[in-house]
Amino acid sequence: MKKLVFLRHGESEYNLSGLCNADPAVPVALTPTGRLQAQAAAERLRGLPIRRVYVSRLRRAQETAAIVNACHYAEIHVDARLDDRNTGFEGRPVTQYLNAMQGAPDPFAWKAPGGESYREMVARVHGFLADLREADESAVLVVTHHEVLQAVAGHFQNLDPARMWLVWIGNCETLEFGSG
User: Fold this and answer.
1) Which of 2, 96, 128, 131 is the most exposed place for a label (fewest CB within 10 A)?
2) Which of 143, 138, 166 is nearest to 153 (CA)?
3) Is the CB of residue 66 less than 8 Å from the CB of residue 141?
4) Which secondary-structure segment (H or E) carries 56?
5) pTM above the 0.90 mark?
């Protein structure tokens, strides 16, 4: 059985500003607090035999992965399926996105122009998880984003979208599962 560790990135500049970011071309960095959170996560995970790290294309996740991986020297794989949900509200307040989504008749099917629905994001993450079953390392680290981690929890805990939505993972908190 392998151990799968899913880690949310450290606090980012946009977390502090309450802004949406899913575009890898917009380089949203970790804050000093975010770097400290990533260092603390590295210490917590130091004893795991991590040999492979998967990370989204977004800078905040990649910075977090680099800090945590400094003691593992694992192979890092960037996978767009781990990117944050494209809300269609790039650079705009998270509150605007949440209000629009929650005002829709079916919030989990709703999507803004140019964005993706929650259900579409969940499907892409579940596709990644299906492929992850093929990894043969004893411990794998995945560094990604809050809504992606909701989809991960939904996959392993058999949650519907409404129950996934209630899962909260703070900056540099982990979800851990066994897979065999």
Assistant:
1) 131
2) 166
3) no
4) none
5) yes
pLDDT in tens, 129-172: 999 988 777 889 999 999 999 999 999 999 999 999 999 999 99
Beta bridge partners of residue 141, listed in sequence order: 5, 53
Determine the Cα–Cα distance for residues 104 and 119; give it in Å rounded to an integer. Answer: 14
Backbone angles phi and psi of 81, in degrees to 5: -65, -10
In DSSP terms, which residues pair with 77 in a beta bridge? 54
DSSP SS3 for 52: strand
Whole-number pLDDT of residue 165: 96
